[in-house]
Design a protein that fits this description.
single chain; about 300 residues; alpha/beta; 6-stranded mixed β-sheet; two-stranded antiparallel sheet; 9 helices; 12 strands; about 25% helix; globular
């Protein structure tokens, strides 16, 4: 990996002695709301555009808003009402949706450290829910997430195609895990080279499998809360790899990491990858992206 990074070693996390595990609070200032998206510097974005823009082909990664008729985690489904503005020949649309019922990026105030009750950079529920001064702190609407977008060199890790080619058993609808060793094997097979600051996309095969489930199976699967989902393994090694490599990570499954918490040797894992990833290190994380298999690198 090209590691021209200017970030502290993973072993140095947390950066301050009284902060929660794996946190990098204060690295970009006490009011920072970008986290690892700070790695998408103008120079890195320009290099990515120069190296990866070859054909001009554009790919939409959005899954349909109503693709999950029964979303996971007991979330309400997307609802659309078309209103005829009679007597004129005019239609208005009213949409109601949970923003996590389809393709989405988690903001840094989605899930807090449960013991400390703090989000990225020490933000609290009171900071967010003030009745007198509603705050956008750590949201995506006012931060540079929305103003600048998440733009850079993206790499696709096509685990689904690799596991089919290598007869690797995997069920996206049961608790299991994609190991770091497997992910590195996929990248090697694809001849995909990681550069520091890349945006990582993992195609697990969730959407491929979901689209083939009968409705009864979809409803049964979604009725389990929290759901049984395979995904990226929950390990310190994964957190280290993400910290040392990427500006953002995303996958085609509703949860980037496996759910429920994967158990090793009968003991519950102490780490939850996505939550330590976002609330501590400040890493952007996307879910339910519609990922294909045609291109392994893109801008």
């Amino acid at each position: 990996m090209d590691n021209n990074s200017d970030v502290p070693d993973f072993a140095d996390l947390p950066l301050r002695p009284n902060d929660p595990p794996f946190s990098a609070w204060g690295l970009y200032g006490k009011h920072d709301e970008l986290g690892t998206l700070n790695r998408l510097t103008d120079a890195r974005v320009a290099t990515a555009a120069r190296d990866e823009l070859q054909t001009g082909l554009r790919v939409n990664l959005n899954w349909a808003l109503d693709a999950q008729k029964v979303p996971s985690f007991n979330r309400p489904p997307f609802h659309k009402e078309i209103i005829h503005k009679a007597p004129r020949t005019v239609n208005d649309d009213t949409w109601t949706l949970n923003t996590q019922s389809s393709t989405q990026w988690d903001g840094l105030r989605h899930f807090a450290y449960q013991k400390e009750k703090m989000f990225y950079n020490g933000v609290t529920l009171d900071d967010i829910h003030s009745k007198h001064h509603p705050s956008t702190v750590n949201g995506i609407q006012e931060a540079a997430w929305a103003r600048r977008g998440i733009v850079g060199r993206g790499i696709l890790l096509d685990f689904h195609s690799w596991r089919l080619a290598n007869n690797v058993a995997y069920d996206p609808f049961e608790t299991g895990s994609i190991s770091l060793a497997q992910m590195k094997a996929v990248l090697d097979a694809q001849h995909t080279h990681v550069r520091f600051g890349d945006i990582l996309f993992i195609r697990s095969g969730y959407i491929h499998g979901y689209n083939r489930l009968p409705q009864q199976a979809v409803e049964k699967f979604a009725s389990v809360v929290p759901p049984h989902l395979s995904g990226v393994e929950q390990s310190e090694e994964i957190l280290r790899w993400i910290w040392e490599s990427f500006s953002a990570v995303a996958g085609d499954q509703p949860s980037f990491e496996c759910w429920r918490k994967f158990r090793d040797a009968g003991r519950p894992t102490l780490l939850n990858v996505s939550f330590s990833n976002s609330k501590g290190m400040g890493s952007a994380r996307g879910s339910a992206l519609r990922l294909g298999h045609a291109h392994w690198r893109a801008f």
